[in-house]
Amino acid sequence: MELSREDYQILFENVPAFISVVDQNYVIVQANQNFKNTFGPEVGVPCYQAYKGLPEKCPQCLVEKTFLEGKPQVHEEYGRTREGEAIPYLVYTAPVFDPKGQIPYVIEMSVDLREKKRLEGELRASQEFLNNLIENSIDGIIAVNASGRVIVFNRAAEEILGYRASEVLGGEKLEKFFPRNFSPKIAAALKGKVEKSPPLTMISQEAYLYSKSGTRIPVRFSAKILMRVQQPEGAVGFFQDLRPLKILEREKLRAERLAAVGQTVAGLAHGVKNMITGLEGGVFAVQKGLGGQDPHLLQQGLGMIQKNVEKISTLVKDLLNYSRQQAPELQWMNPNDLAEEVCGLFQEKARQAHIQLLLKADPHMGTAYLDARGIETCLTNLLSNALDACLLDRRKSDHQVRVGTQRNEDHSVSFEVEDNGIGMPGEIRKNLLTAFFSTKGKGGTGLGLFVTHKIVQELGGSIHVESQPQQGSRIRITIPQEESPSPFEKNASAEN
Amino acid sequence: MDPKKILVIDDEPDVVTYLTMLLEEQGYETCSAKNGIEGMGKIRAERPDLVCLDLLMPEKTGVKLYHEMRKDPDLKKIPVVMITAFGPPLQPGIDFKRFIHQRSMISPPEGYIEKPIDREILVKTIAEIFERQERPVT
């Protein structure tokens, strides 16, 4: 079906564009209604005047180019409506050929860009606002696109991790900036291997990121897959530096420790008074022994003095040690080596007491991130208790203390000390970790398991106590661990 | 006159040794127990003239033993001297006498001595207790 002349007229007048036809003098000879409504009924007026209010031809005149080259042109222009409003428009020109091949006229068709520009402006403002939010967030914000490359790396992320955004954007991949156990799942989700909807969200209350210098940084991390029309378009991570919190935590523990020391002094009074009574008893016996020429009494008195001096000495040393203790110093170390060292310290004492001391170290232990000095204190305490328990047990003579290390399935590390000595009745076992010193039986020789408990607590671990009176005890310390050193961490290799 | 028999109850062996030596030097006969249960057994078996009692012990505390003694018509006349490491002001918040005497529903011990033990005070306290027993009640 062919369009009639009238049809074209309707088209000409009503198309949603401005149409003007200009002659070789740039004078508008015909224009559509849209044009007339917007720029004024300026037939007979040059186009540069009608569209732009200019007194002469535009410097880069598109119409001129069309006349010269005989080819359509397109360009974005800025003009002025008849109300004086600035108006951006996109103009398409087309030459009109006469039968001789000359170009008497050029048609200008323009699309009103005002709405588009307005929307663009709004979008820009909105983007700037969001950018502001992202940049000014206290938390680190990192986003990667669907290919896993970093596209957002805000100021907080720069500060926390020590990279400049310019170093990171577009280049690095997500493994470097998301927690180790998150990255594989995110990578899989970005490739479209999503397990189920809703879109994947992962939150960790304590994860680790690594700074540019390889330092391990504890963070609270929240990651989310960003979807657009059912397809993954990227992932974002929000994280909060936990180090200030950790410092507060340490301060709190330290304050608690000092408070405990204060309380301990009151609690210790009981034990100390008994020890002093023992000392005075010894002195009394020695005096009587000397006076009455009784060597047996002398011996007895001296023994009492010696025993109580040792008890007081241990107690004071433990107390000083405890109050002087620094925050845990974490480092990569070998738990098996440590266990072996501590057993070595007690080898002679065990031998003299005819107690068999065994070490069963887990061959799959590997290295662990622990406070070596703290664990040493704990193991020493446990071994000492175990040996004492055997010494106090007069019912059997075949005594054994077994020390074990184990790497558990969840990567945590356990140390265990088991003895077949005198064991503990329920009451003592219940209060074992909280009493400042074991009240009786062992004779109150020190802060004992209270200190061990504190150390284990500070490492986020736990203690498990099992005991049967007359049969023996088993104490197990478990410290949680991350899987293995991250490739991004500096100094991750163990010392040996 | 038969020497007075004193029972020493304390779970710390050195304290028992010391008190035993001290009391025997004064001419008393002594026996001992190392916890509340053994102590109760010995009181009934030996019928001591006086009991020296420590408070914090395993198996049965001195306080429990003391309450039992006072509630038993057979035993309530036996004088008791508490010899203990507990005591103000180092145990703030515990009104110790009240705790032991249950607000005066139980008669107080005849003696209360804090460790470390002052020999003279202990000897004098015990001597005075026995002296009061000899004197007729007015």
CATH architecture title of the largest domain in chain A: 2-Layer Sandwich
Q: Report the top-level CATH class of the largest domain in chain A.
A: Alpha Beta
**Percentage beta strand of chain A:** 25-35%
Give the amount of beta strand of chain B, in percent.
15-25%
In whole angstroms, how far apart are the ends of chain B? 24 Å
The CATH superfamily title of the largest domain in chain A: Histidine kinase-like ATPase, C-terminal domain
- Lateral strand order in the biggest sheet of chain B: 2-1-3-4-5
Approximate shape of chain A: rod-shaped
Which segments of chain B are poorly predicted (pLDDT under 50) over 5 or more consecutive residues? Answer: 89-94
As an assembly, this protein is heterodimer
Structural class of chain B: alpha/beta
Most extensive chain interface and residues per partner: A-B, 26 and 23 residues
Category by helix and strand content of chain A: alpha+beta
Helical content class of chain B: 40-55%
Distance between the termini of chain A: 90 Å
Question: What is the domain tally of chain B?
Answer: 1
Strand numbers in spatial order across the main sheet of chain A: 2-1-5-4-3
Element pattern of chain B in H and E: EHEHEHEHEH
- Give the beta-strand count of chain A: 17
The number of distinct helices of chain B, counting runs of at least 4 residues, comes to: 5
Question: Could you explain how this protein is built, in words?
Answer:
The complex is a heterodimer of chains A (about 500) and B (about 140). In chain A, about 40% of the residues lie in helices and about 25% in strands. In chain A, strands 2-1-5-4-3 form a five-stranded antiparallel β-sheet. Chain A has three domains: about 5-115, 2-Layer Sandwich (Beta-Lactamase); about 135-240, 2-Layer Sandwich (Beta-Lactamase); about 245-480, 2-Layer Sandwich (Heat Shock Protein 90), CATH 3.30.565.10. The N and C termini of chain A lie far apart (about 90 Å). Chain A is of the alpha+beta class. Residues about 440-445 of chain A have low confidence and may be disordered. Chain A has 14 helices and 17 strands. By secondary structure, chain B is α/β, with parallel strands linked by helices. Chain B has one domain: Rossmann fold. Helix content of chain B is about 40%, strand content about 15%. Chain B is built from five helices and five strands. In chain B, helix 2 (about 35-45) runs parallel beside helix 3. The interface of A and B includes residues 269, 300 and 439 of A.
